[in-house]
Specification:
The chain has 165 residues and is α+β, with helices and mostly antiparallel strands. The protein has helices spanning 16-27, 55-67, 99-108, 129-139, and strands at residues 2-11, 33-38, 44-53, 71-77, 82-93, 112-116, 120-127, 144-149, 153-156.
Length: 165
């Protein structure tokens, strides 16, 4: 199974997100991550979602998404031609024994310690999903208390999703 990033440009109206998510439910596909936000034009929102499947699954979903009411454009973003980022907040155990290791890893991963107290550290990590996954693996032995990830946001290089193909 491959991982796909799909950008859906929709009218900024109530019920649109429910219709998009409902399509995945009806087709029996899982959405791995989903982010939604207003675009440069307040009349439109952009839904960025990731899913796993084969090319047939991806093509079926692209075709069905294009048929939905209030959907302006749909595009599968290719790894080679997109910029993708995610944000993660991760709360770690803080102790004199592990503090320098957390600080060193944060520097290497270009992460920021955004909250510090004697019991915990909260670190913000921004980057590609693989970078966040690697940071998680490094922090597991230290003790992850809690974490939250935004899901993927991605833009295609050199053109916009709103452009007609």
């Amino acid at each position: 199974m491959k991982r796909f990033v799909i950008a859906v440009y929709v009218e900024n109206k109530y019920g649109v997100l429910a219709r998009v998510a409902g399509l995945f439910l009806r087709r029996g596909f899982n959405i791995d991550s989903l982010t939604v936000g207003e675009t440069e034009d307040p009349a439109y929102s952009r839904i960025t979602l990731t899913m796993a499947g084969d090319d047939y699954d991806k093509n079926q979903l692209l075709t069905q998404l294009k048929k939905l009411h209030n959907v302006r454009n749909v595009k599968s973003l290719e790894t080679e031609t997109m910029v993708e980022r995610e944000i993660m907040l991760i709360k770690l155990k803080n102790s004199p024994e592990n503090r320098s290791e957390v600080m060193a890893a944060s520097e290497i991963y270009r992460a920021k310690i955004i909250d510090y107290n004697p019991q915990t550290l909260v670190v913000e990590v921004t980057g590609e999903p693989s970078k966040l996954n690697a940071f998680i693996e490094v922090m597991k032995p230290i003790g992850i208390i809690e974490m939250c990830r935004t899901g993927a946001v991605a833009l295609e290089r050199n053109k916009t999703i709103a452009e007609k193909e």
